[in-house]
Write a structure and sequence with these properties.
By secondary structure, the chain is α/β, with parallel strands linked by helices. The chain has a single domain, classed as TIM Barrel (Alpha-Beta Barrel). The strands form 2 sheets. Strands 1, 2, 3, 4, 5, 6 and 7 form a 7-stranded parallel sheet that branches. Helix 8 links the parallel strand 6 and strand 7. Helix 1 packs across helix 4. It is globular. The N and C termini lie far apart (39 Å).
């Protein structure tokens, strides 16, 4: 089934940056990764959150300050958007996504995965918001000055609390993917806006720390937020993941919250080295839709999962900012 897709997380921007020193540089229009605009054009509409991913170790990996890596990666991606403005346009709200779609254009939403590139500095968030950034995690797999990760443990620091409050003041959605369990609940103690997990699955279905417990998912629902289904095979099943494993996570979340209003897509495409059998790239979302329908998902819930719920949480974040 040809579906419109709103995906809350990918690492394509950083993949294009990392590929920049190769003789045959990859581009957003067409490449050999998981996402390009030619394949996205096979969908029934497309809005993608593109993460600017940084972590402190990038200073050693790229042999330059992590802040410079961030600036160069962002600059490269903005050049890609400009070069492909016949197909895709920036968007900072659901209304802009709708306006782009009416012109037959896809939408690109900027997000932060790991604020190392901005020095973990809450005072820089307002400038990011003006640039179009609408989602931010508090880190990646490291412990940092804001919070601990799912690998390290450790809750929110005072600076982390300031970061959360400033995000929500501006209308930037706080993303709990990668955070520790303690950090998750610390955020829930202070949140004044919807909270999302842009690319996290069910821990009940696949028992790893990167996934959400049932209580965590229900708390996200309570805030008016959403969880994005992650397609990284290791987050779906211990081994031999396929499209049915993706469906298993979807249906488990729907058992917890039958409304289906708090579940979205967050494929982690171009950020993982192994996808489930039957899913090769962004255009495979059509095949996943077919399998979900075959498993008994109704078309309304499918459209909510693929498009409406992510649009709704963006609406709610903007309204918080406008209060």
């Amino acid at each position: 089934m040809r579906m419109p897709v709103f995906d809350l997380h990918c690492d394509t921007a950083m993949e294009l940056y990392a590929d920049g020193n190769k003789a045959n540089k990859s581009h957003l229009r067409k490449n050999s990764g998981h996402i390009d605009l030619e394949r996205a054009g096979k969908l029934g509409g497309y809005a993608q959150c593109f993460a600017m991913f940084t972590t402190p170790s990038f200073t050693e990996i790229y042999n330059r300050p992590v802040e410079l890596v961030y600036e160069q990666a962002l600059g490269n991606f903005l050049q890609e958007l400009e070069a492909n403005k016949d197909l895709i346009l920036p968007a900072g709200s659901s209304s802009e996504i709708r306006a782009n779609a009416q012109q037959g254009k896809m939408s690109a939403i900027l997000t932060i995965e790991g604020p190392a590139g901005i020095g973990f500095d809450p005072e820089r968030l307002e400038a990011l918001y003006r640039q179009g950034f609408r989602i931010s995690t508090l880190g990646w797999n490291e412990q940092n000055v804001l919070a601990g990760s799912h690998k390290t443990g450790g809750g929110l620091t005072d600076l982390g609390k300031t970061y959360v409050r400033e995000c929500q003041r501006l209308g930037i959605l706080v993303d709990v993917s990668h955070i520790s369990d303690e950090g998750f609940w610390d955020i829930m103690d202070i949140t004044q806006a919807p909270v999302i997990a842009s690319h996290s699955n069910s821990r009940s279905v696949c028992n790893i720390s990167r996934n959400l417990t049932d209580d965590m998912y229900m708390e996200i629902c309570r805030t008016g937020g959403t969880a994005g289904i992650n397609l990284y095979a290791e987050f779906l099943k211990e081994d031999d993941a396929d499209l049915d494993c993706v469906c298993d996570h979807v249906f488990h979340f729907l058992e917890l919250d039958p409304s289906g209003e708090h579940l979205s897509l967050g494929g982690d495409l171009d950020g993982c080295d192994k996808l489930p059998a039957g899913f090769a790239g962004v255009d495979s979302y059509n095949m996943l839709a077919d399998r979900l329908l075959e498993r008994g998902l109704d078309e309304k819930t499918l459209h909510d999962l693929y498009w409406n719920n992510a649009m709704g949480v963006m609406d709610r974040a903007v309204r918080i900012n406008q209060k």
